Amino acid sequence: MNQPVHLHAVLKTTPLATPLKDGSLKSDDVVLDFTEINPIHQAFAPMVREAAFDISELAIVTALQAVAYKRPVVLLPVVVASRFQRGCLISYRPRGDVKPEQLRGKRVGVRSYTQTTGMWVRAHLVEDYGLATPDIRWVTHDPAHVEQYQDPSFVEHPAHGKGLIEMLHDGDIDAAIFGNDLPEGDDYVPVIAEAKARDLAWAQQHGFVPINHVVAASADICKRQPAAVRAAYALLVQAERQQAAPETGPRKTLSGFDALRAPLAWIIDACVEQALLPRKLSLDEVLGPAHALLTGETA
After folding, report:
1. Does the pTM exceed 0.90?
2. Distance from C-alpha of 26 to C-alpha of 7, rounded to nearest angstrom
């Protein structure tokens, strides 16, 4: 009997990942050896720059940029994290209320211009308020995970070391986009009114929740151990499909090519508008390598 292939994997510990990590779901063909990285976004640059892991969670914007710049990764059709995003755009009440319509020509802070939450907030501003992305000055600190990408001219990189909260307090920026680090307290106010209701209506209209993170495999391991990657994908799909359906709105996890085509087409268009991609990617470019691998078309 052949021994299972061991793959080096990185996933944030979530209800989806837990059965893969504790062995509740396992395969005779592959063993996923997990490395814990917290926060998970610290795994993204090593993955797309060096293929540091065999299997890794990856932000959707980073994954699309990796495809565009031909980095050594293969996007697998599994969504492991999605969330509603409109409530992540925050102003500082002591400096006065800020409405989305007032943001044209203003400065908005975000950790990185390529951060997925920022992409979604900008896309919603385009949809809801007609604010084209270059209409706003985007103030950032962190560079892109894909080092070949360069921020566009309407993105600023201040020399000071202030964080988003301090910049809000000092009036250096008019609003800021936060991810999992949303500030607490009554002084921090969502810029977009009725964000939760708008988010739910959007998801019901489009049929998916805004995607944050997907899964990628290194191109090298796909060539050397295609059967093991197929087995790992099968485990991921099994774990995803075990997730309970939400009481309202679409699922926050997805798997399979059919489930990802429409969301990816929407996200690609948003990324093109925001100058996050050098050109519009085709779905075949994004999903073709995984389709060939997972259908056994590769050796």
Report:
1. yes
2. 13
Strands 89-92, 107-110: pairing is unpaired
CA pair distance 10, 17, nearest whole angstrom = 10
CB under 8 Å to 103, separation ≥6 — which residues? 125, 129, 131, 135, 136, 174, 175, 191
What residue ranges define each of the domains in the chain, with the CATH number in brackets?
Answer: 5-83+209-294 (3.40.190.10), 86-205 (3.40.190.10)
pLDDT given at position 163: 93
65 with 144: CB under 8 angstroms? Answer: yes
Non-local (6+) Cβ contacts of 76 within 8 A are: 214, 215, 216, 217, 233, 236, 290, 294
3-state DSSP assignment of residue 289: helix
**pLDDT mean by block of 10 residues, the chain; 299 residues:** 91 97 96 96 97 98 98 98 96 93 96 97 97 97 96 93 93 94 92 95 95 98 97 98 86 96 98 98 98 78
pLDDT of residue 248: 76
3-class state of residue 74 by DSSP = strand
Residue 138: which of 114, 102, 162 has the closest Cα? 114
Rounded Cα–Cα distance for residues 149 and 230 (Å)? 30
Residue 77 is given by DSSP the state E
Cα 232 to chain centroid distance, Å, stands at: 21
